[in-house]
Amino acid sequence: VYKLDENYDYLFKLVVIGDSGVGKTSLLSRFTKNEFSFNSRSTIGVEFSTRTIRVQNKIIKAQIWDTAGQERYRAVTHAYYRGAVGAMLVYDIKNYESFVNLERWLKELRQHSDPDIVIMLIGNKADLRHLRCISIEEGSGFAEKEKTFFMETSALEDSNVEAAFIEVLSQIYNVVS
Ligand code: GDP
Fold first, then answer.
1. Is the pLDDT of residue 141 over 60?
2. Could you tell me the CA-to-CA distances from 35 to 27, 38, 63, 104, 161 in Å, in that order?
3. Is any ligand 1 atom within 6 A of the Cβ of residue 124?
4. Are strands 58-65 and 149-152 parallel, antiparallel or unpaired?
5. Does this model's pTM top 0.90?
6. Is residue 136 classed as helix, strand or coil in its secondary structure?
7. What is the mean pLDDT of residues 39-67?
8. How far is the CA of 67 from the centre of ligand 1 (A)?
9. How many whole angstroms separate alpha carbon 43 and alpha carbon 104?
């Protein structure tokens, strides 16, 4: 947690993790640019995006890191997690394997991060109701067991994306203030 210049009060680093294809890049571009693309293969080389928002009268700059495809090779590095105060742990509600793999992501996250890190479990692609194979109850049950926050989102329909990031940033602010 840094406090650097007059443009913002706090800079918080967030990481987005989860299996390839669950919509990590899409959530990030929805939140930082309000954009969505059906063929988002844009992240190669991009390390992070930022957005500055006001939370409880403080100006918070969120620096949000994307894996840039590293997760495909299970090569998400220590540097990726370093200094993160929040994490978005993402699965796809129609992809059972992405839900099963949450255990592995959480283990890796906990090995590399501060015990106070704020974690938001995200069931993305909530617009694909007809293809759903993970129920809301299963998602929230996992979150409860692992003591994380939980929301279902759709980067496509722009539902709950802003709410999920703002919830994490507010919770971090509550921890540091
Ligand atoms: P990443 O590999 O986790 O970064 O996933 P991407 O952001 O590249 O998304 C993978 C694919 O899922 C892309 O074709 C996206 O357009 C699509 N996608 C991402 N979010 C959503 C969503 O909320 N709903 C639907 N229907 N498709 C999505």
1. yes
2. 9, 10, 17, 30, 12
3. yes
4. unpaired
5. yes
6. helix
7. 84
8. 14
9. 23
Q: How far is the CA of 95 from the centre of ligand 1 (A)?
A: 12
Report CA(35)–ligand 1 centroid distance (Å): 12
Q: How many CB atoms lie within 10 A of CB 177?
A: 10
20 lines ligand 1 (CB under 6 A): yes
The stretch 81-88 carries a mean pLDDT of 96
Q: For a pocket test of ligand 1, which of 37, 40, 157 has the largest count of ligand atoms closer than 8 A to its C-beta?
A: 40
Classify the C-alpha dihedral 121-127-130-136 as positive or negative. Answer: positive
- 98 Cβ inside 6 Å of ligand 1: no
Determine the atom of ligand 1 nearest the C-alpha atom of 66. Answer: 4
Mean pLDDT computed over 52-64? 94
Distance, CA 93 to ligand 1 centroid (Å)?
Answer: 12
* ipTM entry: 0.99
Local confidence band at 1 (pLDDT 50, 70, 90 cut-offs):
low
Measured CA distances, 115 to 21, 64, 119, 128 (Å): 28, 19, 10, 34
